[in-house]
Design brief:
The complex is a heterodimer. By secondary structure, chain A is mostly helical. Helix content of chain A is 78%, strand content 0%. In chain A, helix 13 packs across helix 14. Chain A is globular and about 85 Å long. By secondary structure, chain B is an alpha+beta fold. In chain B, strands 1, 8, 9, 10, 11, 12, 13, 16 and 17 form a nine-stranded mixed beta sheet that branches. In chain B, strands 4-5-7-6 form a four-stranded antiparallel beta sheet, with helices on one face. In chain B, strands 2-3 form a two-stranded antiparallel ribbon. In chain B, a hairpin with a 5-residue loop joins strand 2 and strand 3. Chain B is globular. The chains are: A mainly alpha, B alpha+beta. Chains A and B meet through helix 2, helix 3, helix 5, helix 7 and helix 13 of A and helix 8 and helix 14 of B.
Chain lengths: 318, 527
């Protein structure tokens, strides 16, 4: 077997094992939270009778272990089950939310990844001069401000005062792509500002590291322009760390944006998961958890594979 | 000048002048702002409701776990959704009387034990079926039967039997209750086809707007139901959007993406009112923020200690700092002037450190810290309110220790379980229901563990009493009893604070609930 295929297969099976572990952990942790779904649903309005009725109806009287294996059996056959709180099909409701989350993450990535790498290259080109310092100063400032604050500030000045973009990033099926893009302008802007610095700084550092090498000196002596040297000779050799940090940020754009979703009232997965946790809707929490874990593990695996492919030394191990 | 004024009034009525412009222009003619405001409202009302437009509400309380099944409703978002597509038998009107909905009239036997609701004819459900007495009966059965998990289960308990004869739905109670119609106005008791027995969450009702799209925790959209029985409801469509974050809610209203929002934060309310396109509407209601002590648990089982704590709280400061003035003083009973039959002559309890210290001494408490549990979710500002209470109590020599609990699980683990904590009550339409829900010794939600046989007796006595003067007298005694002996420290009643766009005409004060008791899409129109 080709070593690459073998490696991918190894990584995949490890990933699946990790997913099992993650699902057991998520289940255990939600069980450990105080109260159960019946109490969470009824809240202050709970009476012993209504609690008992609801528990019976939700199937909460069965032991936790058997509920977990029921769920596991379902997911093996591709059935995510139904919410115990509002009894909607989980696959359907999660699907919609996941689509929205991926839509936002995709456009944020389309804007931020090329921009970050370009700014990183630019910073190296003008290393220690004012463009480098300006880029670092601005991106480090935006990453240091909590994202909800950036969100509120943008909403106030752009949406409320100038009428640019919309304060609520509501998207739904009946909207055209253009309308959707208009709706998510501000959240994409916020997410870009939040993830830019990390990727930009890593690009800068990785390339600067390579720039010390002898072959860069040779390229310079050949008379290539500085930007050409960076883009053609330094960048390909710095890909591995850059890909790693890009993937980490992509994962963040998918799984870590609940605050931005709340501020812009974006109907994504984050808010959905938070609701499910407060209502102790275990099947939904599990489904969301598994999807998040899968995305996280998948992207990290992709990063590993790309850095191996990009590095001849790793590509042909002795 | 009169011509000019008439012209302006006409323009205002046609919606071509905003309130602010109108006041500005008329003040140039020498009309005071207050008078101009009234004039504007009359002018707009006089022109009559206009049809059309899609009204958008931004509401707190949206969760992806919400359902269209009325039995499950517990927060604001489903409350507003229900108001669009469904109707109860009766509604509490703005003046506290009973307003007819799907029941045309209500009568009772002289002993207040049997109540007859004469049903409206030719009312059509959104699925094309005509409403029958059977639908009403099944609805009530679904909310009251053994395995019901309805939020209205508690209020359906006193019903002995129900039946339908022709177009009369009658309810027989095991104990007399003069307030039954008010109980039937509960927002869970929406009439559904076959009582919702087949498909409780189908979203089919008799309301003015039928459900088009329902995305739980995101938004619900409605369009006008052409065969709606009533003559109110002037919009072509309604959209209820879940905006749980209060800053986002305010921003959405400011940028014109929604026309009305609920739960404006008191600290931004006066600032928001200054925005040119927004009116902040504050409605005194029956909701109140409370500190509750279990009267059966030491040290709170000693009335002297309870009194000491009641005197050690500065109610004026609470209303000023926690509610920012959007509320009124509490008097350690769950009732205020927003209730029918309220006795205004009961003396207001003042902040009195000397008396607090005196009662504290008389209680013989050993001086160990008294633990007060609180959480952000107990009521808005609960943590700050607890800190204020701690400060004033310390001045009277009473040591309070604040224990901050997580929001998550507060209602299941702390409230009604721990002996001293912060909480809130949304209030009930009538005194009887409020007392029966939380102060009757056998009530499930008796969160102060208040047991007083005399009080219980008076409650049933008042319930059966049809003479309002006598009833008022009994309620006054009951209120005084809770005030002096109960475990309730009630520093304040909170107002409903709504934000409404100036494009909306027809706003009316309705103390029964936020956004005109949820009737905003029925009783207002775009100016």
């Amino acid at each position: 077997m080709h070593p690459i295929i073998k490696l991918v297969a190894q990584r995949l099976s490890l990933g699946i094992l990790l997913l099992f572990a993650a699902s057991a952990m998520i289940f255990g942790l939600t069980e450990a939270l105080p109260g159960d779904a019946a109490q969470a649903v009824l809240g202050q309005a709970a009476t012993p009778e209504s609690l008992a009725n609801l528990r019976e109806e939700m199937g909460l009287n069965e032991p936790a272990v058997s509920r977990y294996f029921d769920w596991l059996g379902g997911i093996m056959t591709g059935d995510l089950g139904t919410s115990i709180v509002n009894r909607l099909d989980i696959a359907e409701s999660v699907g919609k939310r996941l689509g929205n989350t991926l839509f936002l993450a995709f456009w944020a990535a389309v804007v931020s990844v090329p921009l970050a790498i370009f700014l990183g290259l630019l910073a190296v080109r003008y290393r220690d001069r004012w463009p480098d310092k300006l880029i670092s100063a601005i991106t480090l400032t935006t990453i240091s401000i909590p994202e909800f604050l950036i969100g509120y500030v943008l909403v106030y000045f752009l949406a409320v005062k100038l009428g640019f973009g919309t304060a609520l990033a509501m998207v739904n099926d009946s909207m055209s792509l253009w309308q959707k893009l208009n709706a998510i302008t501000l959240p994409v802007l916020v997410l870009t500002l939040v993830v830019l610095a990390h990727m930009m700084r890593m690009t800068r550092a990785a390339i600067l590291n390579v720039m010390q090498s002898a072959y860069i000196e040779t390229a310079e002596l050949k008379g290539l322009s500085t930007f050409n040297v960076i883009a053609k000779h330094a960048f390909p050799n710095a890909v591995s760390p850059i890909v790693n940090v890009v993937m980490l940020n992509l994962a963040y754009l998918v799984v870590g944006v609940v605050v931005v979703e709340v501020v812009f009232v974006y109907p994504g997965m984050g808010q959905f998961l938070v609701d499910a946790v407060t209502k102790r809707d275990v099947p939904v929490v599990l489904a969301c958890g598994i999807i998040f874990a899968a995305i996280y593990i998948g992207l990290n695996m992709l990063a590993d594979i790309i850095s191996i492919l990009a590095n001849p030394r790793l590509r042909h191990p002795k | 000048m009169t011509n000019e004024l008439d012209y302006l009034k006409k323009r205002a009525g046609q919606g071509k002048l905003s309130r602010r412009e109108f006041i500005g222009k008329t003040s140039a003619l020498g009309v005071s702002a207050a008078a101009a405001g009234t004039m504007f409202a009359t002018a707009v009302q006089a022109e009559g409701p206009k049809k059309g437009g899609v009204f958008k509400i931004g509401s707190i309380g949206g969760e992806s776990t919400n359902s269209l099944d009325p039995a499950t409703w517990a927060s604001q978002m489903p409350y507003h959704i229900g108001r669009q597509f469904a109707d109860p038998l009766v509604e509490v009107a703005a003046d506290g009387s009973i307003d007819s909905r799907l029941a045309e009239s209500v009568e009772s036997t002289p002993d207040a034990k049997t109540w007859m609701f004469k049903l409206r004819k030719d009312v059509e459900f959104h699925n094309g079926k005509t409403m029958t007495g059977d639908d009403v009966l099944k609805t009530m059965e679904r909310h009251s039967n053994e395995d019901s998990k309805s939020g209205a289960l508690g209020i359906m308990k006193g019903i002995e039997s129900m039946k339908v004869e022709g177009d009369v739905f009658s309810v027989t109670l095991s104990e007399a209750n003069a307030d039954l119609p008010y109980l039937m106005a509960d927002y869970h008791l929406m009439i559904q086809p076959n009582g919702g027995m087949d498909a409780p969450d189908a979203g089919i009702g008799t309301g003015p707007y039928k459900v088009d799209v329902d995305e739980p925790g995101v938004r619900s959209t409605f369009s006008k139901f052409e065969n709606y029985w009533g003559d109110d409801a002037h919009y072509d469509g309604v959209e209820v959007i879940a905006i749980n974050d209060s800053t986002a809610r305010t921003a959405a209203l400011q940028s014109g993406q929604v026309h009305a929002i609920n739960r404006v934060e008191p600290k931004v309310a006066s600032l928001l009112d200054r925005a040119p396109n927004i009116n902040v509407k504050s409605t005194p209601g029956r909701g109140h923020y409370v500190f509750i002590m279990h009267t059966d648990t030491a040290p709170f089982d000693h009335n002297e200690l309870r009194l000491a704590l009641k005197y050690a709280i500065n109610r004026v400061e609470m209303v000023d700092k926690i509610l920012r003035g959007y509320g009124s003083l509490g008097n350690d009973m769950p009732i205020n002037a927003a209730y029918p039959l309220f006795d205004t002559s009961i003396e207001q309890r003042e902040f009195d450190l000397a008396k607090a210290a005196e009662h504290y001494k008389a209680s013989g408490h050993d001086g160990s810290p008294i633990i007060l549990r609180t959480a952000d979710g107990a009521f808005p500002g609960a943590v700050d309110a607890a800190a204020l209470f701690q400060q004033t109590a310390a001045q009277a020599g009473i040591p309070l220790e604040i224990k901050r609990e997580p929001n998550d699980g507060y209602w299941s683990e702390v409230w009604n379980k721990q002996p001293f904590c912060c909480s809130y009550w949304a209030g009930r339409p009538v005194q009887d229901q409020m007392y029966a829900t939380a102060y009757l010794s056998t009530a499930d939600w008796n969160d102060t563990k208040f047991t007083n046989p005399e009080f219980d007796k008076m409650l049933f006595e008042a319930r059966a009493e049809l003479d309002t003067a006598k009833r008022k007298d009994i309620y006054s005694k009951m209120g005084t009893l809770v005030r002096n002996e109960g475990g309730l420290i009630c520093p304040m009643f909170n107002d409903f604070i709504d934000g409404v766009s100036t494009t909306v005409a027809g706003w009316d004060l309705d103390p029964s609930g936020e956004l005109m008791n949820g009737q905003i899409t029925r009783r207002t129109w775009f100016a």
